[in-house]
Design brief:
Number of strands: 39
Largest sheet: 15 strands, mixed
Structural class: mainly beta
CATH topology of the largest domain: Jelly Rolls
CATH architecture of the largest domain: Sandwich
Distance between the termini: 49 Å
Number of helices: 3
Low-confidence stretches: 1-18
Length: 561
Amino acid sequence: MKIYGWLGVALLTANLVLGATSEILLDDFEAAPQGWKFVDGREFPGAKGSFAADAAVAHGGKQSYQLQADFRGGGAYVGVWRELGGLTVRDVTELRLWVKARGVKSVGVRLNDATGQCHQKKAVPLAAIADWQELVLKVVDIVGGEHWGGANDGVWHGPATGFGLNISKDACTQGALWLDDVRALAIPPGQPTILPCTFSQPAARPAYGLTVTYHWAAEPMGRDYKAFVHVRDAAGRLAFQADYDLPVGTAQWSGRVDQASTYILPNDIAPGDYRIMTGLWNPQGGARLPLKAGAGVRDAGDRSYQVGILKVTADAPIPPLGKPTLDLTGYHVTFDEDFKEPLSVSPWGPGTRWIAHTPYAGDFGDARFADPTKDFPFTIADGILRIEAKKVGGRWQAGLLASVDRKGDGFAQQYGYFEMRAQFPKGPGTWPAFWLLGVAKVKDKSKTGVEIDIVEQYGVHPNSLHTCLHLWYADKKHTADPAHFIVDGMAADFHRYGALVTAEHIVFYFDGVELRRIPTPEEAKAPLYLLCNLALGGGWPIDKTPDPSCMYVDYVRAYAK
């Protein structure tokens, strides 16, 4: 629904970033235009039109682009749309373009802000002349009227992400509009200062790693950009990439910003000194951003900055974990699968303690989760469950256990402590995990699903323990809050992997040592069910995965107060 909300210029100005502006050429149409598309107005059938080069008409160069409109068969409008997300600017204050009209007396203008809100102004008049005329479109003149989508409040939330020009049936019956030399008056982005990084220890060992903390003196940049990290050897060759997520969006960040990132080094990295090269880039278009190099930082060209030297030695210490702090005083066991009895499992239930698939029938990875038989994929010996992955008929199969069935019946618990003791397989391509899901999503697919990955381990990085909090929305949107940690011996021996879920926090543990603590989202304040599995892949190749590969589980338990 479109809403009309006339706002004062003062309110808009308060939301539009102010500063010195510069003119940026968006397109002179001398080559194939970039970021433009024709809009056929198909929601109102009948209009005809096109957007194509015209070498016979030009404002300053050799050609322009012509927008044709024909409403003799019906319809309401046709137009063109230009994406602006690739601009490395803080915001756009106005758009300037040269137009030439034939039989068109006005144009409509649409402008999208950073929330996806579309601001529209109809019937911007054109001079009744046959020659070229400059059309100046100021953001303050467009915003405050008709609007829809995004924030849907009639207020400008910069920066601009796209704009469109429309010819409507009220402006002509049949006509054409030529476009040329399109420019934007823009506020340049802030230029943050990148500072030298710091290390958690002097050197790192292959197959393990260390924590690197990046430091910024930030300035608002108008858009949210991404950080890249390339770690290069003495010859300049890329050893590995270690991009990281910034803790705050660069659109509004300011002041001191620090971000710690744990490196997991390749198993075969050679000892030596490695340059850490970092910077910012625009995910829309890939352009890198200019930065200020702080003291101790070297501008290496191509908008890449050397912020430190990573030393790799074969005898570097393994990063130590803290002391165990898990305290289950006041808790009692509510679920205890110790594998002392035959496994109660069926493909889909009901009537068994476990089912061998996700309740939502969502197999994942590069091995199919097998329906259980007498000796595959689950076997029990001496109170230990073996979950096996192997090729069957030339195709990989593996195993998964879930504690509720397709109706959501089975074990699920609101709050408490959930733990698995297990030994993971050796070899690249393996992907064991212990995780929790919200049972509400099983019973009502319109609910937001919560996933708490207590542990995921990728065999290619045997000393990296991955945790994550996912939210899966009904509209297919998804958020993830991951973190990984360096731990030793997950494939060499049994270890305990746990998560304590309370109304306030989710706390992740390894052998009783707290790894991370995050706020509990509303979706996790509800019954959660258990899953453990051995999958394959997870984004890594499985061509060298041992056949068979086995995960061993001592127990799976849940506790409550």
